[in-house]
Write a structure and sequence with these properties.
This protein is of the alpha/beta class and about 300 residues long. Helices cover about 40% and strands about 20% of the residues.
């Protein structure tokens, strides 16, 4: 990537976008902006030298022609609704024929694959979501990919497994209120540490391949009750007993989590983007989270 000035705008300046901004701004050639729904949050972002804009379905970006023409990179990390992605619905045409646009990244989810009965899925697997969240993500993916197919907009799709990191891990859940350890035999899920998400995004920015789709996942799909037990051990807390899934009386959103069972294959980010995961399993990732927590 050359050293010409780069301008990134993040639709939805949340957890991942914040980490990406911090990583990119270590290089003085980057300027970063982002959107939020909250005026208080906008003021916080401005105080951190993030060029902040209010954005939601009722508040599109003002003066889009001038605004978008300056951008070289765009990250979309807004949860979609029933009609897909808000940024696409309001600004799709503004992305067409931009003179400086080098890279667009859409943060999707592995929920688009649905349930595979514990089988493996790579980026070439059929999309067949089994949840409302997965269906929304699939629709948003189709929307953004249409800009690549029809107008050669440099869109990249990143399908994220369960995101975790400092301040957002099972360690925090255990500290706040001990989660129940639910046992559903054979059920596993992947996760991805936020530092590894940023590794992949930076690698893609440095080596764009428009139209590409990447799975972001660790190497060790694991039952959730094992994570809780390990977090308890790290924190020196008693490990709660297992509760059979059939006896757990779970909320609908939790039931949907246990409905999907698959092993997400991550070889593409390794072979095509030369990424070596910092945290290939939950033990190394949670140890890192604890180190950051204790460092303050």
């Amino acid at each position: 990537m050359n050293k010409a000035h780069k301008r990134l705008f993040c639709f939805g300046y949340g957890y991942c976008a914040g980490y990406l901004a911090d990583a990119l701004r270590q290089d003085a050639s980057w300027t970063v902006g982002g959107s939020t729904r909250s005026e208080d949050r906008r003021k916080e972002m401005l105080g951190a030298r993030i060029r902040a804009r209010i954005f939601d379905i009722d508040h599109p970006i003002a003066d889009p022609e001038t605004f978008f023409n300056r951008l070289t990179h765009v990250l979309i990390s807004i949860p979609p609704g029933d009609y897909g992605d808000e940024a696409f619905r309001l600004h799709a045409q503004d992305f067409v024929n931009l003179p400086n646009l080098e890279w667009v990244g859409y943060l999707s989810s592995t929920t688009v694959y649905g349930d595979r009965g514990g089988g493996s899925v790579d980026e070439y697997a059929e999309i067949r979501p089994t949840s409302k969240r997965g269906s929304r993500r699939a629709k948003a993916e189709t929307q953004w990919m249409s800009l690549f197919k029809q107008h050669n907009v440099p869109v990249h799709i990143f399908r994220l497994s369960g995101i975790y990191g400092p301040g957002r891990s099972v360690l925090d859940s255990v500290r706040a209120a001990m989660p129940r350890r639910i046992e559903k035999p054979g059920h596993v899920f992947n996760r991805i540490h936020v530092e590894d998400i940023i590794q992949v995004l930076k690698a893609s920015i440095e080596k764009p391949d428009p139209g590409s789709i990447y799975n972001l996942a660790d190497d060790l799909p694991t039952p959730s009750h094992e994570l809780i037990a390990y977090a308890c051990e790290l924190l020196g807390m008693e490990v709660p007993p297992l509760i059979p899934f059939e006896e757990a009386d779970l909320a609908p959103i939790t039931v949907s989590f246990y409905k999907d069972n698959k092993h997400v294959v991550n070889e593409k980010v390794k072979s095509e983007l030369d990424v070596k995961l910092k945290y290939p399993d939950y033990t190394s990732g949670l140890k890192r989270c604890l180190e950051v927590d204790r460092a303050g």
